[in-house]
Inverse folding.
């Protein structure tokens, strides 16, 4: 692998931020078992990302690895999870993306399944749209994309690439799987994730009340 060396001080700072957010999200029930993965861009060449198979509520710096934008491990014996490809895809496609968070809350998982055939969750009239960068009013509609799940990461990445056409989307659902949310830094990505969780919860409750 020919990726240039990375800044270890930057890596340590990114790892600390990831660990802080993963512990909070694990406590909220967003990362059951060892589910979920989280990353921060470390510049044009690298990203710090959680390794697979670890309880996200008990991560240490040793559980955060570095990959290049081809999704190859850098200076580590760890292998990235297959889903790390979805993180690096977002970093390659959107140069302003600085962090990606992937969680598996029941709300996200159920919403993805219920709206899989539509290919989107259409949200209307919510004040909390303003928590999403670039959205300034509740008087609008917002389509959160839903893509079919697949164990083939090339196929899944291609499905995601096709649906990311709406400006300021900031997230998508994988049916029966969970949510990917991102932002210019990890704080913004977390705000977007929390907003989507609330909006999807409201949409599911409205669906239940209409039944």
């Amino acid at each position: 692998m020919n990726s240039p060396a990375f800044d270890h001080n930057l890596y340590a700072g990114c790892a600390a931020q990831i660990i802080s957010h993963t512990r909070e999200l694990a406590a909220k029930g967003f990362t059951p078992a060892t589910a979920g993965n989280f990353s921060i861009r470390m510049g044009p060449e690298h990203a710090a990302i959680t390794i697979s198979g670890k309880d996200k509520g008990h991560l240490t710096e040793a559980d955060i690895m570095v990959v290049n934008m081809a999704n190859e491990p850098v200076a580590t014996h760890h292998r990235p999870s297959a889903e790390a490809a979805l993180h690096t895809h977002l970093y390659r496609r959107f140069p302003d993306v600085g962090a990606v968070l992937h969680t598996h809350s029941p709300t996200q998982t159920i919403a993805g399944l219920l709206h899989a055939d539509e290919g989107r969750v259409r949200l209307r009239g919510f004040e909390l749209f303003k928590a999403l960068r670039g959205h300034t009013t509740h008087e609008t509609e917002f389509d959160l994309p839903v893509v079919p799940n697949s164990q083939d990461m090339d196929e899944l990445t291609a499905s995601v690439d096709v649906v990311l056409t709406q400006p300021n989307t900031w997230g998508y659902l994988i049916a029966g799987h969970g949510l990917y949310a991102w932002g210019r830094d990890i704080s913004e990505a977390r705000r977007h994730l929390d907003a989507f969780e609330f909006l999807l919860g409201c949409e599911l409750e409205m669906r239940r009340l209409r039944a």
